[in-house]
Amino acid sequence: MECCMRPTRVVLASFVLPLILASAPATAQPAPASAPVRASDANRISEARDRVLPVVVSILNVRQDYQQGEPVLSVSSGSGTVVSAEGHIATNAHVTQNGKSFRVVFADGRELPARLVGTDTLSDLAVLQAIPPKPETFAYAQFADVLDLRPGDTVLAMGAPWGLSNSMSAGVVNNPRRLLVSLFDDEADYEDRLGADEPTGRYYAWIQHDAAIAPGNSGGPLVDLSGRIVGVNTRGMIFGGDLAFAIPGPDAGEVVRALIAKGRIERAHFGFRLRSLKGTGKTDGVLVNAVERGSAAEKAGLRAGDLVLAIDGQPVSAPQPVDVPALQRRLAELSIGKPVQLDIDRDGQASRIRLVAAAQPEDRGDERAFLPFGLSVSELTPTMGRRRNFDGAQGLLVTGIRPGGPAAIARPALAQGDLILRVGGQPVRRLADLEAVAGRPPADGKPLVIEFQREAEQRLALLSPIHGDRVRTPLPELAKAWSGVEVQPVTASLARDLGLAASGFRITRVYPGSPLGAAGAEVGDLITAIDGEPLRAANENSADGYHQRVRDLLIGSRAEFSALRAGKPRRFVVTLAESPTNTSGLRTLALTRLRAQLREFGFYDRAARRLPASQAGVVVDGVETGGPAGLAHLQGGDIIISLADQPVRDLPGLAAALDVALAKGNGSVIPLQVLRGPETRILYLERYWLTEKTP
Predict the structure, then answer these.
(1) Cα(216)–Cα(160) distance, integer angstroms
(2) What's the rounded Cα separation, in Å, for the pair 651 and 353?
(3) What dihedral angle (degrees, nearest 10) is formed by the CA atoms of 379, 383, 389, 394?
(4) Over the range 372-403, which residues count as b (16 or more CB within 10 Å of their CB) and which as e?
(5) pLDDT digit string (tens) for 534-550?
(6) What distance lies between CA 400 and its chain's CA centroid?
(7) How confident is the model at residue 35, as a pLDDT?
(8) H helix or E strand, kind and range, residue 489
(9) Is 90 exceeded by the pLDDT of residue 619?
């Protein structure tokens, strides 16, 4: 499985060979393509380390993923290597996946922002470029020009396993050409198993080695004793020992150089897949495994089961699965728009087919959340459409639904996997189309008509969008009488065993300023009756009998509470107050700019923290780890009391203080004061993250 390091959790693969990716940090002098053999391997390891490890960097990716239709910001980390004097950094595409912003940390601890130069998901490679405050020439390492590794050669894996920067492990090459297909797998499923909607590893075989890697090593270099980058570490085995897999250095170098030059990789596409001759009884050629419907290959007459013997007159053969990637790469590197000749064998009959190469289509479309609808959608590519039997359809694929959001309560409700075709009668083929049609509240305030496809059916739904920050105002609850204490039920049997004179409800807490507290009640008092009517606990776990008796009384009425204190009778005459609002009844605000869930500061919040009634603020219910609040280290349970030196008394006050702070534009950070446990803390919101536009 592909997996870069995340601070919150590690996700394991669910298929037979559970794979996870690895990732790393830093800068040095260009490594030569070769080095003289030294007498001691230990010396050579030290020299290779000193050449490359200083230019290995840790990559911090603030990424935006989508969960249940909502955009969720988090922080992941990976590794990379500086490969040019201009500060270009080679890494894995999955390290930069869904990235909003990037920073790179060098071996000396220096941290720089970085921009994404280009990605190539089919090879799982990407290039970032560090952005120094002033022009700078970077030290860098070099890719090997040829793959000349042999089983048993010593290799070094460098990176930041589990976020531990400047780490290095040593191992040996197990197999320089390995396809991740076990003896029990069908090689035809190989690509799809490596990535849903984004197959990878199509054009190369992996280097298998046993240098230990872990989440965080992804994108880091595999280095030989000459100091060359012979591979890019990408996958590792969770179970079964130190099995690690790297993209071959020469292949990675070609992709990286192309990404630096153009920002993308151009490949030819014909609409068919190949597989090896293994298990077919054939001895020459390569088998056509699948042909896409409507593709150039199908139109030219190519069929699944055909045996390709030559490409443009050059014989080809793939006896084993490991031989297939090189042939697929050869086809992909043919000129787009030019005819290609295939010599084939079909049931013993030789024939010749001419194809014209098209440009490789995108495997996966752009994805984003559309908050007014409470869902996330992805642009449907032809490849995605074929996989879902949406051939020829154009629209936006629903990838997630927010529970309780507009899409979830539409009539009828939308569901993950639906394909939205039109909104308000307007076709929506791109994300920009949806924004143009429904990005603002409808002028007439009426629900929008959504036309969508579900499997083979085309349906209609009515949806009422919601715009802006989401404020939840709970329905008002009927006010009830309140005595201001918490109690523990004491049954007759428990009272007997404890040696108490009577049963009832023992006071366990007295709230400040409460009616019973003002009347002199104390913790430990045993309340036995209200207005002369005895109190009996139904069991030893529920205090509902007491609270219900109090709630049945009128707010503002006088009541007499009979009690025992140290066995002596007491009497408290109180005027019952209105019960404070429970936490569930307080307003909440999902503040998009902070990517945080906030709540009003209530009576029980102050009581739990032993704060005075005059204490104001806003309670943090939750934060996204990669959002501005999360990156400022704000935590659930914090109470925000000031922002940019302005007191925060309530939810509107916080939003207003943030508006003012952003408008002033003074400094790179905005101070935030919070109450956390017994302390008052100062945190800092970085203006950089607050001004980043959410995709």
Answers:
(1) 5
(2) 69
(3) 40
(4) bbbbbbbbbbbbbbeebebeebbbbbbbbbbe
(5) 999 999 999 999 999 99
(6) 14
(7) 41
(8) strand 485-490
(9) yes
Contacts of 258 (CB under 8 A, 6+ apart): 264, 265
CATH topology assigned to domain 481-578: Pdz3 Domain (2.30.42)
The string of pLDDT tens digits covering residues 222-265 is 999 999 999 999 888 765 557 889 999 999 999 999 999 999 99
Residues 216 and 162 sit within 8 Å (Cβ to Cβ): yes
Q: With cut-offs at 50, 70 and 90, classify the pLDDT of residue 41.
A: confident
Q: What are phi and psi of 127, to 5 degrees?
A: -130, 130
The contacts of residue 257 (CB under 8 Å, 6+ apart) are none
**b/e code 596-621 from CB counts within 10 Å (16+ = b):** bbbbbbbbebbbeeebeeeeebbbbb
Predicted pLDDT of residue 190 = 61
- pLDDT > 70: what percent of the chain? 89
Find out whether 275 and 287 touch, Cβ atoms under 8 Å: yes
Q: How far is the C-alpha of 648 from the C-alpha of 172, rounded, in Å?
A: 59
Phi and psi angles of residue 344, each rounded to the nearest 5 degrees, phi first: -125, 160
**One fold for 268-359 and 481-578:** yes
**Cα gap 584→52, rounded to integer Å:** 56
Token code pair at residue 126: 């990407």
Residue with the bigger pLDDT between 23 and 613: it is 613
Closest residue by Cα to residue 7 from 158, 215, 211: 215
What is the spatial distance between Cα 451 and Cα 632, in angstroms, rounded to a whole number?
Answer: 42
Task: Specify the CATH number for 371-466; select among 2.30.42.10, 2.140.10.10, 3.30.2130.10, 3.40.50.300.
Answer: 2.30.42.10
Q: What pLDDT was estimated at residue 19?
A: 34
Alpha-carbon gap, residue 153 to 146, rounded angstroms: 15
Please name the residues in contact with 227: beta carbons below 8 A apart, sequence gap of 6 or more: 31, 32, 35, 47, 48, 51, 52, 141
81 with 220: CB under 8 angstroms?
A: yes
Task: Note the CATH number of domain 268-359.
Answer: 2.30.42.10
Structure letter (DSSP) for residue 390: -
Residue among 410, 417, 413 nearest 396 (CA): 417
Please give, one letter per residue, the 3-state secondary structure of 38-70. Answer: CCCHHHHHHHHHHHHHHHEEEEEEEEEEEECCE
The dihedral over CA atoms of 173, 177, 180, 182, expressed in degrees to the nearest 10, equals: -90
Length of the chain: 695
Q: How far is CA 419 from CA 174, 292, 400, 401, in A?
A: 46, 21, 12, 13
What is the three-class DSSP state of 274?
strand
612 forms beta bridges with none
Question: 């941290």: which residue's tokens?
Answer: 111
- The CATH number, out of the four listed (2.30.42.10, 3.40.190.10, 3.90.870.10, 2.30.29.30), of the domain defined by the range 586-690: 2.30.42.10
Q: What was the pLDDT predicted at 75?
A: 85
Q: Which two tokens stand for residue 585?
A: 């009844």
Specify the fold of 19-31+44-262.
Thrombin, subunit H (2.40.10)
- Among 492, 491, 486, which Cα is nearest to 550's? 486
Report pLDDT digits (tens) over 428-448: 999 999 999 998 888 788 899
CA atoms within 13 A on the CB side of 311: 22
Q: Rg of the Cα trace of the chain? A: 33
The whole-number average pLDDT for the span 673-695 is 80
Residue with token string 């606990």: 537
| CB contact at 8 A, 595 and 628 | yes
- Domains of the chain, by residue range, sit at 19-31+44-262, 268-359, 371-466, 481-578, 586-690
Phi, psi of 358 (to 5 degrees): -100, 170
Query: Phi and psi of 46, rounded to 5°?
Result: -60, -40
User: Once rounded to an integer, what is the mean pLDDT over residues 629-633?
Assistant: 88
DSSP state of 143: B
